[in-house]
Amino acid sequence: MYIVMNELHVPAERKSDLNARFEKAADNMANVPGCIEFMFLSNVDESKKQVVYTKWASKQDYENWLSSDAFGRAHGNKKTTDQKPAATGNELHAYEVVHSYPNK
Predict the structure, then answer these.
(1) Which residues of the chain, if any, have pLDDT below 70?
(2) By the number of CB atoms within 10 A of the CB, which of 24, 26, 36, 76 ranks highest?
(3) How many domains does the chain have?
(4) What pTM was estimated for this model as a whole?
(5) What is the 3-state secondary structure (H, E, C) of the chain?
(6) In which domain, by residue range, is 63 found?
(7) HSE on the CB side for 51, CA within 13 Å?
């Protein structure tokens, strides 16, 4: 398995905007080949961080998603004169699963 966590740096006043955008993503990820799990996490202690957590059957499945048309549509340029990106930055973290419970 392969885990990817994208830590988004989001001003407190924009958190609800980002929550709304990712609400739609949760349903869409159910149809992505190799995506085992998707979670959008909001840090309760640090108001400026939210995390997109995805679990993949393999690194290749994740890479396939990155190069897919669906990814392009989901991450396309949505900027308009009245809509700025909610996140001011991000840090991407990827991990190979070595041990897990339950073992699947």
Answers:
(1) 46, 76-84, 103-104
(2) 36
(3) 1
(4) 0.82
(5) CEEEEEEEECCHHHHHHHHHHHHHHHHHHCCCCCEEEEEEEECCCCCCEEEEEEEECCHHHHHHHHCCHHHHHHCCCCCECCECCCCCEEEEEEEECCCCCCCC
(6) 2-96
(7) 15
CATH number at residue 76: 3.30.70.100
Longest dimension (CA), the chain: 49
Q: Which residue has the tokens 């108001």?
A: 47
Closest by CA position to 50, among listed 82, 18, 2: 18
Has residue 89 been placed in a domain? yes
Match 């190979």 to its residue by tokens. Answer: 96
Domain assignment present for residue 73? The answer is yes
User: Which two three-digit tokens encode residue 12?
Assistant: 């407190």
